[in-house]
Specification:
Blueprint (H helix, E strand, L loop, with lengths): L2 H14 L12 H10 L5 H14 L3 H16 L5 H19 L7 H4 L7 H12 L8 H10 L7 H11 L8 H11 L29 H5 L1
Helix pairs in contact: 2-7, 3-4, 4-5, 8-10
Length: 220
């Protein structure tokens, strides 16, 4: 995608949603780390349902360790891979206490030391909790960047590095959320809704998906 088109692409997304935010519910950087870790291979909706009651009383590493693995499992048993995730959340909580004074660190390197926290999770936390200009490439962003030609790449890291290079200010901080929301609600995996896409004319994806037939047309 040409540089001018990239700027226009982001400008349109920004006009449509000037202040995008994560759809994960959280109360502080610690609960954000937990929520993002739990969201791997799960929907934000399912994570929010599971953590709603949890975060009302458990919002620090110390409280999470006190709750324990079995206690946490009772809260998150509706989420996929909950056994492994519970183990990781308790372990990362203990590491936050032991190595970081109970505070969530603000560097990618430190975050990636935490059990169950990879580069994508670290990038989300840095962006949402600390306002860093990071690009957390999940399946939605990977799809959007490759389909549109915004930042094509064969791996999430390749896409992330291209996004970092291609995304101009003042769009860098919110780019992650614009792209993930666009992929979640418009540029869908099975049937992208090109007919209502505000950046369709800038997108390399062909052929564009036509609008669904109306009831009258189907009846005829």
């Amino acid at each position: 995608m040409k540089r001018a088109d990239v700027r226009d692409f982001y400008h349109r997304l920004a006009e449509a949603d000037p202040h995008p935010v994560t759809e994960l519910d959280y109360r502080n950087p610690f609960t954000l780390v937990v929520a993002v870790a739990l969201s791997a291979q799960a929907t934000d909706v399912s994570v929010n349902k599971a953590t709603r009651a949890l975060f009302e009383t458990v919002d620090t590493p110390e409280k999470m360790v006190a709750l324990g693995e079995e206690g946490l499992k009772r809260h998150i048993k509706t989420i996929g891979l909950y056994n492994a995730k519970a183990k990781n959340v308790i372990a990362l909580s203990q590491m936050l206490i032991d190595a970081f004074g109970g505070e969530v660190p603000a560097t990618r390197e430190a975050l990636e030391r935490l059990p169950g926290v990879g580069r994508k999770t670290a990038n989300v936390v840095l962006n949402v909790a600390f306002g860093a200009e990071t690009f957390a490439v999940d399946t939605h962003i990977f799809r959007v960047c490759n389909r549109t030609g915004l930042a094509p790449g064969k791996t999430p890291l390749a896409v992330e590095l291209k996004l970092d290079k291609a995304t101009p200010p003042p769009f860098r901080q919110h780019a992650h959320h614009w792209l993930i929301l666009h992929g979640r609600y418009v540029c869908k995996a099975r049937r992208p809704e090109c007919w209502r896409c505000i950046v369709a004319d800038l997108c390399a994806f062909k052929p564009k998906t036509p609008p669904p037939a109306t009831k009258a047309a189907r009846a005829a």
